[in-house]
Amino acid sequence: QLKLFLQQAFVYLFLFGCIVANIVLGIYYGKTKRTVQRIVQSEEEVLDFLEDKFEIQFARGQILVVVSICFFILGACLLNTIIEPDIYLIIAVLYIFNFFYTDYVIIQLYRLSIKVYPEKSKADPTSMNYLEQWLSYSDEAEKELTYQSAYSTFSKMQIVFIIAMFLAFIGQLLFDTGFFAILIVTALFATFNILFQVYYLKLRKQKLN
Predict the structure, then answer these.
(1) What is the mean pLDDT of residues 48-76?
(2) What pLDDT does residue 158 have?
(3) DSSP 3-state assignment of 164?
(4) Which of the two residues, 35 and 43, has the higher pLDDT score?
(5) How far apart are CA 76 and CA 91, in angstroms?
(6) Would the pLDDT of 71 be above 80?
(7) Dihedral sign computed on CA atoms, order 100, 56, 154, 204
(8) Rounded distance, CA 194 to CA 191, Å?
(9) Which residues are within 8 A (CB) of 125 and not within 5 positions of it... i.e. 6 or more apart?
(10) Residue 183 banded pLDDT, cuts 50, 70, 90
């Protein structure tokens, strides 16, 4: 009974988190839209300042998108614990609404970024290499920031994976959470590190050639 109660409580908690994230996301979308309007109409001397402001707002919007999607996935996975049909339907509709709203904002943020950087419209959003294409149309300063951010993320994720594996191992020992959680975290850790080394060797070979 306690387990069921906690699972149901998390459904409401994740829904609340999803709604709050989307409200803040909507606020940031409005700010980003106004910044883009100022960029389109601005003089050359303030353009760099406004573009930096846009980049910050755009990045924060992306963070909120990720948070909202995570809350949606976690809540949707526990939705079947809601027994009452009427409450289940209401919560399901709210989750679906939040999901489509997040998708809408993602599309709008992409369109705003194209207004600021028209050359990036050449990148194909349906391609598996979309992010690489997007980066190829960036200037050298943006590429350098991206590379530094990527390496910082790589180094911090080592700690995150180790902590996650430890927690998954403890969960299996104490709460019988299952071997699958350990398998997934370990597989992600291995894939993450192997891919980094593969791409490192590939780029190094290209540089030597």
Answers:
(1) 94
(2) 93
(3) helix
(4) 35
(5) 10
(6) yes
(7) positive
(8) 5
(9) 110
(10) very high
Distance CA 35, CA 61 (A): 13
> What is the full DSSP assignment across 103-114?
HHHHHHHHHHHH
165 closest CA partner among 181, 152, 151: 181
Q: How far is residue 64's CA from residue 100's CA, in Å, rounded to a whole number?
A: 14
Q: Say what the pTM is.
A: 0.85
Which is more confidently placed, 187 or 129?
187
CA distance 133 to 127: 9
Residue 2 token pair: 């306690």
Measured CA distances, 15 to 22, 68, 88, 103 (Å): 11, 9, 12, 16
Total number of residues shown for the chain? 209
Give yes or no for residue 177 having a pLDDT over 90: no
Tell me the three state secondary structure of residue 45: helix
Task: Report d(CA 191, CA 48) in Å as an integer.
Answer: 38
Distance (Å, whole) CA 31 – CA 9 = 33
How far is residue 169's CA from residue 111's CA, in Å, rounded to a whole number? 44
